[in-house]
Amino acid sequence: MPIAYYITHPQVQIDASIPVPEWGLSDTGRARAFAMLDQPWVGSIRRIVSSGERKAIETAEILAKHLRLAVEVRERMHENDRSATGFLPPPEFEAVADQFFANPNESIRGWERAVDAQGRIVSEVEVTLATNDGNDIAFVGHGGVGTLLLLHLSGREISREADQPGGGNYFAYDVGARRIIHGWRPIDSQSSD
């Protein structure tokens, strides 16, 4: 039973002067990514596929170096496209994100629609799994599209109720059955759902 792990990048260095996709991990985020390497679920991973955004690639590279694997980059695994607004202060971002999940068929302030982001991430994961050789695989990406993937795999409607609790989490699912094994857990500690 191959397992797929969807891992979200941990904390980033926020810099309103550069585009969000170019943000890298903060010191805290890097420390959490390294702490992830001690978790028992990491050892079985034999393939690592990352979004092309810097913060995801940095997380994937930490994992890949530890496991002596290459990182495959799939550009279309990026976070929901929010370039229309660029950086938003956290309270405003959270309010717009609430609207993004609550109105999946609408573009909120020019953002990519949730239904489109969900279709894109599901397609990218499925295309990747079609060439997987039965080994455990890690997808390294982002909370918004990760939540949309989790909802799809769970057969649930788009909503924010399944959103990750902050960055730096992962969920696991059975690749063959496309069945969730467990929901979001912190990448750097053992926990239950």
Characterise the protein shown here.
The chain is an alpha/beta fold and 193 residues long. It has a single domain (3-186), classed as Phosphoglycerate mutase-like (Rossmann fold, 3-Layer(aba) Sandwich), CATH 3.40.50.1240. Helices cover 34% and strands 18% of the residues. Strands 3-2-4-1-5-6 form a six-stranded mixed beta sheet, sandwiched between helices. Strand 2, helix 2 (54-67) and strand 3 (71-73) form a beta-alpha-beta unit. Helix 1 runs parallel beside helix 2 and helix 4 (114-129) packs across helix 5. It is globular and about 40 Å long. The two termini are 21 Å apart.
**Which strand order does the major sheet show?**
3-2-4-1-5-6
CATH topology: Rossmann fold
What's the CATH superfamily, by name? Answer: Phosphoglycerate mutase-like
Assembly state? single chain
The biggest beta sheet is recorded as:
6 strands, mixed
> Helix fraction?
25-40%
Mean pLDDT score = 96
SSE order, one letter for each helix or strand: EHEHEHHEHEE
CATH class: Alpha Beta
**CATH architecture designation:** 3-Layer(aba) Sandwich
How many helix segments?
A: 5
Class of secondary structure makeup? alpha/beta
Instruction: Estimate nothing, just give the exact number of structural domains.
Output: 1
Strand content is 15-25%
End-to-end separation: 21 Å
Q: What is the gyration radius calculated from CA atoms?
A: 16 Å
Low-confidence stretches: none
